[in-house]
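Provenance and format

Records in this collection were gathered into a single text stream. Each protein contributes a sequence line and a token line. The two records reproduced below are adjacent in the stream.
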Amino acid sequence: MDGRLVRQLSEIGDASEGDVIKELEHVLTNAAGGSLTVKAARDTFTKVLGKVRGGDMQVIGRKTEDMAVMISLKDLAALIRSSAKNMSFGSALDEVGFAPLGRRIKIRPGVDQSPLRRPGKARTVARGMGM
């Protein structure tokens, strides 16, 4: 699988759904060397299948919303492995829905630390504790 194609596909993931489809059409059509009509793919299916088994991909269809992509299982597995490796730590956090606290937490060295409190909560300090 072409490393440049993997990089381009991994960059598309951050766009909105409509933009993803348009970008996928552009990237995959360029990688495949153009698209075939459904009729042309049907008439030359054996040739198209040989091309796909040989490591190329083929885009079929003319309308963006109706396009299909033929790719070998081996190339699909390589594409999945490559895209999984390229995920940054920030992307992984975004994927699981991480939301930062919104402020910096300062922790002093030592054993007897007071528990962290959320902002806006009333602080109750017992007399004689020296806080």
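Adjacent record:
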Amino acid sequence: MKHLLKLLILAILPLAASCSEKPEEEPDYTLNSNAIIGSWELDLAKTDISDGLVAWVKDITVFTFEEGNVYKATGYFGDVEGTYSLSGKGGNIITAKVDDQTHIVFTVTDADDYILHMKASVQTYEKELEMECYRIEIPAQQDFFKDEEGVEFLYDYIYRELNYFASEKQILDDMMVAGASADELLNSHYLYRAWRRAFNCWDYIDMMLDGIAANGSKYQEYLSASKSYKAYLLYNIASSWGDVPRGDKMLPASDILDEAIACAGDCYLLLSEIYLTNGDRAKAKEALSKVNRISVKPDTILPGYVKGHLKLLEQEAAGETGTLDDAWKKSELSYGYCQMLRRLGKVSSLLPTPFAFSKKNT
């Protein structure tokens, strides 16, 4: 019996040894610690905000990981700051702490230089959130013009940012039309997000235009649209905020609009709005006379513009403003309505400048 037990033990020992020596499973994703350095914003369109997490998502929308393991979260109700550490065999588990208490645990499932796919365990809700974040600021050292893929990414990034900006500013315009006070606007996270995004987008459009200029004829197919994007952005900045800080100086709205005119090209709907903002109906009429009345292209590559804008802008350029408000309401168009009311003096104020950005733009 003892002999039989000994044989049984001898048979089990190699199996136990092989089990104890079995290597851990490789992680699904291995994270380079430098890859997360920077600020990342939730892409709400690609983030699961079910199960009661809507309030949390609205509260915290930007995550920042800085060198020295500094963690920051920015949202509507203010900022928090703490530390973060990496763990897990792939280094892809990020534990963020505030006041020595775990704030969020992120598990990075995939990433590149510009997108983070993560699962976040949110302590407050005890839920796991599937999220996608995109980099707010593209790394300055990135050479986008080394190949076509890099240029295409930068172009797509600008287009996405411009559309996000347009959506956020439209919410602010709707608030102004509804009679929102300056305090109500300043308490809206959309004001801060639209402002920050506008100036980031301005930087990247300039990066695109500088890169095209430095490469001769190589990337000329991106030139016209990039200039149109800049004209659209500058018009919306100047017509919404007036004079704005840029670098270490204030730029007058008139100078910004002049640059928008220089960049607008064949976007004649946009040009007409700029001229109307300047009070020059004759030039607005001239611009509108050149619009492709069938497709209104290329203005339709810009956020918000549709064929219905042509008739409304023609009516304003002709000075027929008595029924213009009713015509806009009948059209049910949103983009441009607040600007029109501002031009007619029916919305008297500009958007307030966020306090945090009163002396800087980023």
